[in-house]
Design a protein that fits this description.
Strand content: 25-35%
Structural class: alpha+beta
Largest sheet: 6 strands, antiparallel, barrel
Shape: globular
Radius of gyration: 34 Å
Distance between the termini: 137 Å
Number of helices: 13
């Protein structure tokens, strides 16, 4: 027969059972709290200074919604049109005349007249002045015949180029606004660090006012774009059409101008480059004031110090700019700089890499006295140097050609190649075409500004004067055959002397 228990007896038994379990656990030190405390005390008793790991800090994302809403009105879409005149017809295979019978027939039928076609491109820009000044890339607008700016509210304006600078790939354009423009504030790119959040706004693939976000991946990148490379690298998505648009920090200020990407496909691969706003600010100011950029010059050719050179010079670190050549009658020559000197410091700025020096010199006002720290024969010495103005051809560019001159009758506006221009174009000699007269013989045959005349009738052209002398010796009606260099290509042009 099963024994029965009253309800009060069962409750009392359960309570006593629970209390006994707690007492036993306490004695055996099995509670989680006691275990953690005991372990901590035990570590302390053994003399361990280890502390409990700190909690990971909370990461707060920027308010991208607010940034996009507030800043998009200051970003513009830029569409350009350029009329291109081909110097020779191209067949289906893209070859010069003579490679395709149909092309030869076509050219003979139309008497060899150059073809015209329009090139269209898209880019971005942003307003820096309420009077209508817009900053963008030179490669977006530099060669355009027509520039159309579209604001965020879909209003369109025709823009004109105020000034451009191919060395930094920057251009300043202007519209005549009939409304108040939203101006984007400029920040300080020098304050930005690797890992900082940034926002890119632009028109990739023509998709207007696209916003992408990322971080600064690196600073001071040299990508071979020009003599003053100092790019900010970012993983914010940048694609064709973003060029000229702003890179913005979390305070809503522009710290860079999106310019280039590294990609195997032509689309974003997470590596984009922006011109620091501290460089762009100075260029934009000069373009707005005078339409051109004035730079400092000292007259040296420099190179990187690799590990072998570092060892040969007995340097502890591979830093500084090694002088490989001092140009005659230059500020460097006057100051006593010598081939083989290593420039370690420019003013109060150390030269960590040889690429640091050109930008520092270029941003120095001509006439300024600067003290260099130079390593020569293993000893440091101070050298005072007076900065002069870089002559890159802009200041001395000739006006319209004289219609009665030899080159003027051909429609060519010629300019001597300075050492700086020769290095830029990758030639030793020749005559630089600074301009082509509209409707002239040269324009009809497709010649353009930036062409280099290398030969005339098989004879090398050393200077503008040598070209003019040879044209003068040619009789009226005779053919002048020119070998012309354009970028990485060369082609022949035949002109009949008037």
């Amino acid at each position: 027969m099963r024994k029965s228990y009253s309800l009060p007896t069962l409750v009392l038994t359960a309570v006593l059972f629970l209390m006994g379990g707690l007492i036993i656990a306490s004695c055996l030190d099995l509670t989680p709290h006691s275990t953690a405390q005991s372990t901590k005390n035990e570590r302390a008793g053994k003399g361990s200074a280890q502390e409990e790991p700190a909690e990971a800090p909370m990461v707060r994302l920027p308010d991208f919604r607010r940034l996009a809403r507030d800043l998009m009105p200051g970003v513009v879409n830029i569409s350009t049109t350029k009329v291109v005149r081909s110097p020779f017809a191209r067949g289906p295979r893209g070859g010069p005349r003579g490679q395709d019978p149909f092309e030869d027939f076509f050219n003979r039928f139309f008497q060899g007249q150059p073809r015209e076609f329009k090139q269209h491109s898209l880019g971005s820009g942003f307003v820096i002045d309420k009077r209508g000044y817009i900053l963008t890339n030179n490669h977006v607008v530099g060669a355009a015949d027509e520039i159309i700016v579209t604001l965020a509210n879909e209003t369109e304006y025709t823009a004109k180029v105020v000034g451009k600078d191919d060395k930094t790939d920057l251009a300043l354009i202007k519209i005549e606004p009939k409304e108040d423009l939203y101006v984007l504030p400029l920040g300080d790119s020098g304050d930005m660090e690797i890992g900082d959040w940034v926002l890119a706004i632009g028109n990739p693939f023509g998709l207007q006012h696209t916003v992408t976000a990322g971080i600064i991946s690196a600073k001071g990148r040299v990508i071979g774009a020009g003599p003053y490379d100092d790019f900010i690298q970012t993983d914010a998505s940048i694609n064709p059409g973003n060029s000229g648009g702003p890179l913005i920090n979390t305070s809503g200020k522009v710290i860079g101008i999106n310019t280039a990407i590294f990609s195997q496909t032509g689309e974003s691969a997470g590596i984009g480059f922006a011109i620091p706003i501290n460089i762009a600010r100075n260029v934009a100011r000069q373009l707005q004031e005078s339409g051109k950029v004035t730079r400092g010059w000292i007259g040296v050719l420099i190179q990187h110090i690799d590990p072998d050179l570092q060892k040969s010079y007995g340097l502890q670190r591979a830093e500084g700019a090694l002088v490989s050549k001092v140009l005659p009658k230059s500020p460097a020559s006057k100051a006593g700089l010598k081939q083989g000197d290593i420039i370690l410091q420019y003013g109060d700025r150390p030269i960590r890499h040889h690429s640091d020096l050109p930008a520092l010199v270029a941003n120095t006002t001509p006439g300024t006295e600067v003290e260099l720290v130079v390593l020569r024969d293993g000893k440091r010495r101070n050298v005072e140097i007076r900065i002069e103005q870089l002559d890159d051809g802009e200041a001395k560019r000739p006006g319209p050609p004289d219609a009665e001159s030899e080159e003027g009758r051909l429609g060519l506006q010629l300019q001597e190649l300075t050492p700086e221009l020769a290095r830029q174009f990758g030639v030793d000699k020749g005559a630089l075409v600074a301009g082509v007269e509209p409707g002239s013989l040269a324009e009809q045959k497709g010649m353009q500004s930036g062409d280099i005349i290398l030969q005339m009738n098989g004879e090398p052209i050393q200077t503008v004067r040598s070209f003019i002398d040879r044209v003068r010796k040619t009789k009226s009606g005779e053919i002048i055959r020119l070998l012309v260099k354009r970028e990485d290509n060369q082609y022949f042009v035949a002109l009949q002397k008037p």
